[in-house]
Structure formats: C-alpha cells, structure tokens
Amino acid sequence: MCFHSSACHCETPSGWLDNPCLCIQPVYGAQHPPLDSRLTKNFIKDRSKAPGLPMKGKKASSFHEFARSTSDAWDIGDDEDEDFSSSSSSLQTLNSKVAKATAAQVLENHSKLRVKAERCQPALSELPTNCKVIKSSSEAQLSRTSEEACVRSPLQKQQSLPLRPVIPLVARISDQNASGAPPMTVREKTRLEKFRQLLSSHNTDLDELRKCSWPGVPREVRPVTWRLLSGYLPANSERRKLTLQRKREEYFGFIQQYYDSRNEEHHQDTYRQIHIDIPRTNPLIPLFQQPLVQEIFERILFIWAIRHPASGYVQGINDLVTPFFVVFLSEHVEEDVENFDVTNLSQDVLRSIEADSFWCMSKLLDGIQDNYTFAQPGIQKKVKALEELVSRIDEQVHNHFRKYEVEYLQFAFRWMNNLLMRELPLRCTIRLWDTYQSEPEGFSHFHLYVCAAFLIKWRKEILDEEDFQGLLMLLQNLPTIHWGNEEIGLLLAEAYRLKYMFADAPNHYRR
Q: How far is CA 193 from CA 190, 217, 235, 442, in A?
C-alpha cells in the first residue's frame, strides 16, 4: 500500500518499505498491515518456523509478530503452489507402511460414507418442488458447502487433523437479501411508485428523494436515483438527456486526450499500480475478472488520477468504482449481474456505463479526497475520532483494546480507506450507499458512526478474545458473508442513533 503521493507507487502491498520517502506519520495500508523487511516471507513458510506468539511483548513487536502469521483476506495468495512443491519432498519421507495403512483406512471410511449417501438419495429426490435454482457460481459454492458439511461430519469424528475451512464466495449481487430476493410486498410496490412519481416530475424534489432513499432504493430506480443524489444529473427532467450526452462526450474526450500518456515516464508508475490492483478488485466476483471490465476500470482510474494530481491514484480507490459500475450495469441487465458477460452489450451501452461510473465516483471522491492526499490525513483523523467515539460509547470494549495493545489504526484504517467495502458483501455496500448518498456528508461524516456501530455490533466476540492475535484476526475477518438488507438496516439505525447523540456534543470527545 503506497500512501505517500502519486509519484511514489509500489508494485507490492509492502513495497512502500523500499521507497525511502518521508512520512508525516506512518499508516497501515489497505492491503496489508505494516511489515518490515524481515516479515515479507510467505505466511505458510513463516508459520512453520515460528514458535508461539509472545503476547506480553512490546506493542510494535506484538503487531509485527501477528503480521508474521496473517495476511489480508482480500488478497489471493500467489505462492501457494510454490509452498506446496517445496514441502512435497518432506512428504516423500513418510514411511510406506504408514501410508498404506492410512490409505486403507480412508477407503474404508469412504465406502461407509457412500452407503449412507445412497440411502439418503431417495429422500432428497422426493423434494423437487423445494429445490432452489442456483444461478451463480457463488451461490453454488454456498450450496455445496452446506451439503458437504453433513457428509464430512462422520469423518471428522474419526480423524484428529483439522480440515481447511471453506471460504464461501460472495452471494449474488442482485439478491436484495442474503436468503434471496422475495416477491415484492404491497409496501415495496407503494414505495416504488412513490419513487417513480418523484423521478418523473418536471423538477424532482431532491430533499424528498433523499428522504425516500434513506431506507433503501428499489433496484428498478436505483441507477437514475444515484445519478441524481450524487449531483451528476440535474433535478430538471428536461435537461437530463442533454446533460448525460455532454458529460459522456466530455469523459471520452479525456480518454482521447490523456489515456495514451499512460506509457509516458511520469505516468508509468501510476498506470502500473492501477494495472496491478485491478485484478485484486473483488477477486471472487466473476464479473470483475472479465478483461473488458478490467480495461474499463483502468481507464476510469487512470483518468481520475491524472486529473487529481494532489492525491493521484492510491490503493483503495479501485474498490470505489465497483458499486457504481454494478448499479449502472443492472439498468441494462435483468439476470444475475455477478456472472453476466459484458461482451453481450452494445458499445454505446458500455460507454454510457463507463462514463457514468467515472463521474459518480468522482463526485464521491470530491467529498473525501483528503483521505488520499499525502500521508492520508483524512483517514488518520477519522480513525482518531472513531477511537474517541468508541471510548465514550462502550468503555469496556475500548479498555479491552488497550489491555491487549490493539491500535485502532491496525484495523480501522481499511474501514475508512475502503468505506467498509472489504468487510461487507457488495450487495450490502450498494444498500449502504443508498443511505450515504441520502445523508449530508454521508461518505465523510456519517460513515464514522456506521464504523462505530459496526464495531460495537461485535462487542461480544471482541470481549471473548483474550489475546492480541485473536482480536486482530477477528477484526480483519468479520463474518458478514451472509448479511443482507436486514442487517444493514439495523446497522444504519444504530449509526443514526449514535450520530443523534454524539454529533453535536463535542464534550463527549473530551476525556
């Protein structure tokens, strides 16, 4: 993670250590916690050599010890094959008799499980009407995980070796809830009609639109609502078509004017870092791994970076384009967006989605650009404000962090840098942004209270952890994979309560 300036970029998350540029205050990257040159080896290699972590060490050393045995869950390890091959020689030293005996035991267990599975098969075939059609690879993964759990349970009783946990893919983007999109209720139909009336009026009442959007925007009208709430479209309906045409032409004018300069020496570092980060953006969603989509993201991010030299491109900005892209894509796609092949769309439609995503992302970043300028002072201030806020909201949790020497910057930097996008499924981020765009300074100010509510949501799990490593592992891998609209609604309600109690009470921040 390079957080210094547009001229100081690195090819690896920990590469900033190799660039001797000065810092106002060292901060932790969105991709990884801070590492030193001795701690850049692969997690598997280090863990096999490292003894138990000394939990009573100094604060800095304890975090570095933790860094030895963990990595950002967002990244996909590129060195697993190398580690496996390097360890294969040691596997060959196993005694052949032991290997044969183990193999025989596995075959026996497998035959027993097969008999049980065959007995269960007729019962499963009797329930065709209740079967759920799986439309995405992630949903199939979730289904397989639940089915295999039952089959593996007898085997787990017979062996002591721990199984490697299966990390489910993100559930479908198009789902309104984790359990799937239910039929529209009468209340939801009424809300949708209210939105359509507002949007079709000659001059849309933006205050009323924000009020209606706070509890969530219906999928059918979300694209045009987001364009209006972000300030990209005018409230006057007669001016919208010409505005869209002008702004889209302006964006592609930037492409013609600037994009070829990506190969020039003074822009090479920026473009190279963008090119490295794009494949890491939501790596479990097939949509974002399509070459055409990655080319679109590269153009959007490069044009934004060179038009904002005060910050340039910083890792984390690449995440912020994805919700806009998905929302504007859904305007043209009725099926599952997650696995949709964008080559099926016309060139004009793709150009419209790209330009709209650029301008709406730019509007968002205009309000939080100090998060990405030199040393990222905006994020440092927000993390400090979060610490002070939590100390007033829940002193027990705050003291628990102090007891085990956990710094808020070690986990909350990513929360601010990526707006909780790496802690929540993308469908939840889209729902969250409905409210952020409805709130005054939603992305810069209200987000602080959402982070506080999000932290306190896990207070029981936090207090149950009684060492530094356990706390950091929990806070960097919070179990939100099955979250949907209901959980986000409760989170936002609690955040609003906290804002109402603390936003206009500066004395609450004084110790």
A: 5, 12, 18, 25
Q: Is residue 219 part of a domain?
A: no
- Residues recorded for the chain: 511
Q: Give residue 510's pLDDT band: very low, low, confident or very high (50, 70, 90).
A: very low
- From the CB of residue 94, how many other CB atoms can be counted at a distance below 10 Å? 10
500 within 8 A of 380, measured Cβ to Cβ: no
Q: How far apart are CA 444 and CA 369, in angstroms?
A: 10
Q: What is the pLDDT of residues 10-51, one digit of tens each?
A: 443 333 434 444 444 444 344 334 444 443 444 444 444 444
Domain with 22 in it: 15-68
CATH number for the domain harbouring residue 396: 1.10.472.80
Q: Which two tokens stand for residue 261?
A: 């300069």
Q: How far apart are CA 397 and CA 463, in angstroms?
A: 7
**Domain total of the chain:** 2
What is d(CA 281, CA 27) in angstroms, rounded to the nearest whole number?
A: 21
- What one-character-per-residue DSSP string does 382-407 give? HHHHHHHHHHHH-HHHHHHHHHTT--
- pTM score: 0.69
